[in-house]
Specification:
By secondary structure, the protein is of the alpha+beta class. Helices cover 29% and strands 28% of the residues. The relative contact order is 0.05.
């Protein structure tokens, strides 16, 4: 082991360096000694280091310095001193370093040592390096031995990452990837420790703003390392938490674990109880068997919101106390941390945290805290905001740093699933790493929390042994997380299946003893196989199912019993998960499948499938791991009076297990495209048809064809059928079993001829349920096959269905207005007594070719042009791209952005007289009009699918208005748009006031600006891709309304316009439109719209005087002083459509929503979905949404487009049970 080391020393103090060099000269392991200097030494100093070479080096931690070292190094190993401290090398230490490095074939070796602190020698052990030791402050001591070949390999790549501060850190990570970093558990040297700050101070160095430049480089190096080892997370693939996956009595719980904090616990609890929030919350204190007065003090706080828990166990750490709190039934949807010696900064902290979950779609939220003393005086470093965290790289950088911030808050269902480690250190950091693997961690960078430092704090000043223990544990957490991320990114299955459904299911079984017992019994249920031809069926003996199999479903029996699917009749233990406000998901207490759900409609309505089939596709889209099935009212449904689906474990049905064989022998009979079709399943024991789809639209279209082809029994409301659906990769598969009979004859037989088998969807799929043991034991393949075929269509009946399907076509839209040719639209642009315009190209008017500036004036009931009076004028273009410019066109009429500008148009210009004014009308093809409309209303950054959806609804709405206008002209549409009484005026504003053109060019209809602005290339593509397509409901073109933002709940048509409900314009919860994403908002809020930034939730305040003046002026009446605003009637979304205005002189009820919005604002109130509160002389309107909220929500649709939803999925989400049809090619 001779002359194996080249030694590199930072040359700080000449005297200290001389002492170290003297020690090194005495070792035969040293080959050469190099001094790292910022500039050449003076001759005098150089004389004392004659046998040393100088290497110019700036920052010791820079990549360039390491490259310079690598260039000089020739020996096998490099000994590097990383700090210019006084050093005493132990006896034989260098030989020992080399020996261990050689024997271990190590890339790097480091050792324990002694510290000299204030003249006293103290042991300084360090810890073993592991995969997770990637924090940049890992303690190696000041001497490391590095294999020279690897140092040179690192230096050869240094130009890729020219670090100034992170070079040494990057070298260590590089060495860990290419070899072993070995810890010698022996004290091989002594060094002088100059940083004697307490551990509680040092731990915040990485968040000190003065170190920000250093931290940025450290983060870059760590990220490169994680990418190299296959553990770098890409947050763009994050999952979105479903905050409605379970129901909770309170929205949030503040969780306070405590042990012996009599001095601080009351302050902490009161800080939590003093929170002001718009939701219900509680405070859960887990008192870990305190021995001081903590328990007594807690019992003295009398507040129903305080939950004081003393756990039964006595072995809990802080993590165990958290687990006790979150598994308590009283825990809220979000669990928010508060340590027992800390405080919230303000009464708004809890509200800010919960809001952050929703705004940031986060599963965990972390705030910012200020360090302070017990008197709340700020301590260094002050505010800890962790601004180093970014959405793009936060989850990767989290592995480098030792903490994530406070307060920490968690989405409770996920937290219950993961659980805290039962420790009192690092338990929260462990959770942050796991959450960040799959979910976004929301951040709040403003102060929420006060972290009080005082003598009793557990981490104010720690011994070296305690510091090492803490660091070793966190390194282990990081190791586990890196290993988990590597497995995840390699596509391996994780042990913990992250499924909201599974969490909901497990939580229900925890709380419902009877259901839990039946699911346990199901694991041991007896089954046997039956070979039926080439298929295998399975018989299950399931006594609990006699409740369903034996149910009487005649009208008298159904009417006589309470509906067990209605919420008021369900068992008290049964909890629900709401799905889109239309269905509840329930755990089925009488299971057939290992996981078995019932999904009833929220409303009590008949079991019918025609208009609800699309829900199956939605369920599979949301929960691709599920099997969904439907039993018709006489096909196994035990609740034929209440619409419902069922769902459960996929892959266990005999049909599914035989699918590879069955799918090879199918006959396609109908095809929409290469991925969507209907086929006959040829080798199945009974008649069965497969619908294969990839879009909801295609799925519904194919099902409607099949539905129409099925025979209908005389006394039935729909064809008899069972449906079983599941996902297979990208394909949605629905097997439809057409039926002709409810139950087989053997069900009603007596004696040995009786089999109590009532086939439902699962029986038809090969899993035959027998509640009676004797039926289970004696059922033969022949009997089973006979039962299934007896209840199915006969061969002839089934063949008739197939023939109908082969000849079926989607019914064309029967419109009297439109043929297969693209129509022209007449758009009212501007009306005035005088209009100026420019013909930019040749036009013909009155038989003459005209170009240039033109002016027309209203005169004696006609149009005065060039000295001659006309009843009307038509300017017809002579080229397809000819255009004219209209001056002083008003846009944003009655809105806050109202202004005038010159606009340019293609097509024909009509000038006509109406009400003593000249009206300019532009006639042009519908598709050109739409290009301008959508380019005006939509941003160039909009997703293509969103634009395609908008093209279809804009076209649908336009053609519907054109059809309405023609009907009015024919006298077939004579309704009034107002109802007026002495105490009530109900008015709605629709398009019937346009009598001489189809639509106007302003926001009253659709914003049309001709070719004033360049067409958006994305828009052109979207319109071309959907050319001629409209939304239809039956034979009617849908009146496809849309608004900016529904505020989370869409409205129904009749609450905004005439009292004629549209079945496709219904109210439902919209989970998409709550976003602050500027990229998404810019797609909808174009130019002047972006002047209105707050609209999802908004507030408007008026003094009584301001409101009185406004209402009197806007309604042109004398109400005197406004005393009250009273909502009289609301639509289903909460929008007010009747509002009583109470004045000192007059009371009047007004409506509908636009009339209310106009009366309460200078232009338009954002929406009529508001509550009214009065404080003193102030009226405060707290509202939601922007616009009427009917039909498509533009913000929500933009979010759907960004999430990868197709345009047909977007359309069919907002326009329920509508269809997409093509009117013209």
């Amino acid at each position: 082991m001779r002359e194996k080391i080249d030694c590199f020393l930072p040359c700080g103090s000449i005297q200290v360096t001389q002492q170290i060099v003297a020690q090194l000269r005495g070792s035969k392991s040293i080959q050469r000694i190099f001094l790292l200097v910022s500039e050449p030494l003076s001759n005098e100093d150089a004389d004392s280091f004659k046998d040393c070479q100088q290497v110019e080096a700036g920052n010791l931690t820079s990549s360039q310095t390491l490259a310079n070292i690598a260039e000089q190094a020739k020996a096998d190993y490099v000994l590097l001193q990383t700090k210019p401290n006084q050093l005493e090398i132990g006896l034989g230490a260098l030989d020992r370093l080399v020996r261990v490095a050689f024997d271990a074939d190590a890339a790097m070796v480091y050792a324990d040592h002694f510290d000299i602190i204030e003249g006293e020698r103290k042991p300084h052990p360090v810890i073993d390096y592991q995969l997770g030791s990637i924090r940049d402050d890992f303690d190696f001591g000041s001497l490391i031995l590095v294999k020279t070949a690897l140092l040179q390999a690192f230096a050869s790549q240094a130009e890729e990452h020219p670090y100034q501060h992170a070079g040494l850190y990057a070298l260590r990570l590089f060495l860990s990837r290419n070899g072993r970093i070995f810890h010698i558990n022996e004290k091989l040297y002594t060094e002088e420790e100059t940083d004697t700050r307490a551990s509680g101070v040092k731990q915040f160095d990485y968040v000190n703003p003065r170190n920000r430049e250093v931290q940025i480089e450290m983060e870059q190096a760590a990220t490169v390392h994680l990418a190299e080892i296959g553990a770098k997370i890409d947050p763009s693939y994050y999952r979105r938490p479903d905050f409605n996956e379970q129901e909770f009595d309170v929205e949030a719980s503040v969780v306070i674990p405590v042990y012996n904090r009599e001095k601080t616990i009351c302050d902490a609890v009161n800080s939590a109880l003093n929170q002001k929030a718009s939701f219900k919350y509680n405070v859960i204190v887990v008192d870990n068997h305190s021995t001081d007065r903590t328990t007594e003090l807690l019992e003295g706080i009398h507040d129903d919101r305080l939950i004081h828990i003393i756990p039964e166990r006595t072995d809990l750490g802080i993590g165990g106390c958290w687990n006790t709190a979150i598994h308590d039934d009283r825990c809220g949807r979000f669990a928010v941390q508060l340590d027992s010696d800390d405080l919230y900064s303000s009464p708004k902290t809890l509200q800010q945290v919960v809001d952050a979950f929703h705004k940031q779609n986060a599963a965990m939220v972390i705030g910012s805290y200020r360090m302070c003393d017990f008197d709340l005086n700020t301590l260094p470093p002050g505010l800890i905001d962790h601004k180093e965290w970014t959405d793009e790289n936060g989850p990767n950088n989290a592995l480098r740093i030792n903490g994530l911030g406070a307060p920490r808050a968690f989405f409770t269902p996920l937290l219950r699933q993961i659980g805290f480690p039962n420790t009192s250190y690092g338990e929260d950091y462990a959770l942050g790493l796991i959450f960040s693997r799959h979910y976004r961690i929301g951040r709040i960078f403003t102060e929420l929390y006060l972290c009080r430092r005082w003598g009793g704090n557990s981490d104010a000043a720690l011994s070296i042994d305690k510091i090492n223990a803490n660091n070793l544990y966190k390194d282990q957490l990081r190791t586990l997380e890196i290993l988990a991320r590597q497995q995840m990114l390699q596509g391996r299955q994780e042990l913990m299946v992250d499924s909201p459904l599974l969490r909901f299911f497990n939580r229900q079984l925890e709380k419902w003893d009877d259901a839990r017992r039946r699911y346990r019994e199901l694991r041991n249920v007896k089954t046997r196989e039956l070979a039926v031809g080439s298929s295998t069926m399975q018989v299950q003996w399931n006594p609990a199912r006699i409740v369903s199999t034996g149910a009487s479903i005649d009208k008298q029996a159904v009417a006589a019993r309470p509906c067990f699917l209605c919420e008021q009749n369900r068992p008290k233990e049964q909890v629900k998960k709401n799905i889109g406000n239309q269905y509840d998901l329930l755990v089925n207490p009488f299971p057939i499948l290992p996981i078995h759900f019932t999904i009833p409609s929220v409303k009590h309505e008949p079991q019918l499938i025609r208009n609800s089939y699309g829900q199956i596709h939605k369920l599979l889209e949301e929960y691709p791991e599920m099997l969904v099935f439907y039993n018709g009212p006489k096909c196994g449904a035990s609740a034929p009076d209440h619409a419902h689906f069922q769902a459960g474990t996929s892959g266990v049905l005999p049909m599914q297990m035989s699918w590879q064989r069955l799918s090879r022998n199918m006959t396609q009979i109908v095809s929409l495209n290469e991925h969507e079709d209907i086929s006959v399943i040829e080798e199945y024991p009974c008649p069965a048809l497969l619908i294969r789809s990839r879009s909801q639209y295609g799925d519904e279209q194919l099902f409607l064809r099949l539905y129409e082809a099925l025979p209908m029994q005389d006394d039935d409301t729909e064809p008899m059928m069972n449906i079983v659906s599941w996902r297979r990769d990208d394909d949605f598969l629905s097997v439809v079993f057409p039926r002709r009979k409810h139950r087989p004859d053997c069900y009603y037989a007596t004696g040995n001829d009786q089999y109590i088998i009532s086939p439902g969807a699962l029986d038809m799929s090969g899993l035959i349920i027998t509640p009676r043991q004797e039926d289970f034991e004696r059922l033969t393949p022949e009997t089973a096959l006979g039962i299934l075929n007896e209840v199915s269509l006969t061969k002839d009946e089934f063949q008739q269905v197939v023939e109908k399907l082969k000849t079926s076509l989607l019914s064309p839209l029967s419109s009297h207005l439109f043929t297969d040719k693209e129509p022209d639209v007449n758009v009212g642009i501007v009306s005035a007594e005088k209009i100026s315009f420019t013909l930019n190209s040749p036009y013909i008017a009155k038989g003459e070719v005209i170009t240039g500036e033109q002016t027309v004036e209203f005169s004696e009931g006609g149009i005065l042009w060039r000295g001659t009076q006309y009843r009307e004028l038509n300017f017809t273009p002579q080229a397809p791209d000819a255009s004219f410019s209209l001056h002083d066109v008003t846009i944003g009429v009655n809105f806050h952005w109202e202004r005038k500008e010159t606009q340019v148009f293609e097509g024909t210009l009509h000038l006509v007289v109406e009400a003593d004014q000249i009206v300019a009308i532009n006639e042009l093809p519908v598709e050109k009009y739409l290009t301008s409309v959508i380019s005006s209303e939509m941003s160039a950054t909009s997703s293509l699918e969103f634009l395609k959806a908008h093209a279809v609804i804009s076209r649908s709405w336009l053609l519907a208005q054109m059809e309405k206008r023609q009907q009015r002209e024919n006298g077939s549409d004579g309704f009034f748009s107002f109802i007026k009484k002495d105490d009530e005026i109900i008015r709605w504003y629709d398009r019937e006031d346009h009598t001489i053109f189809d639509v106007c060019a302003d926001d009253h209809c659709q914003r049309y600006q001709g070719i004033t602005k360049a067409s958006n290339a994305h828009v052109v593509e979207a319109i071309s891709a959907t050319r001629g397509q409209i939304l239809a409901y039956g034979d009617e073109i849908c009146d496809a309304r849309f608004s900016k933002c529904c505020g989370g709940e869409t409205e129904e048509f009749q609450y905004c316009w005439e009292d004629t409900p549209k079945p496709y314009l219904v109210s439902f919860h919209d989970p998409y439109c709550n976003t602050n994403d500027k990229h998404i908002l810019s797609q909808v809020l174009n130019d002047f719209d972006q002047e209105t930034p707050d609209f999802y939730r908004w507030k408007v305040e008026y003094t009584q005087a301001e409101l009185s003046e406004l209402v009197n002026r806007k309604l042109k009446d004398d109400f005197g002083e406004i005393i009250d605003l009273i909502p009289v009637a609301r639509g289903k979304s909460g929008r007010i459509w009747k509002l009583k205005i109470v004045g000192s002189k007059k009371t009047l009820t007004i409506g509908k929503e636009l009339e209310i919005r106009r009366a309460l604002s200078e232009t338009h109130l954002y929406s009529s979905a508001f509550d009214v509160t009065k404080e003193g002389d102030k009226f405060i309107l707290n509202g939601k949404g922007w616009g009427h909220g009917v039909g498509l929500c533009q913000i929500g649709a933009a979010v759907m487009g960004e999430q990868g939803k197709t345009y047909d999925e977007i359309l069919l989400f907002y326009y329920r049970n509508a269809q997409i049809k093509r009117l013209y090619e």
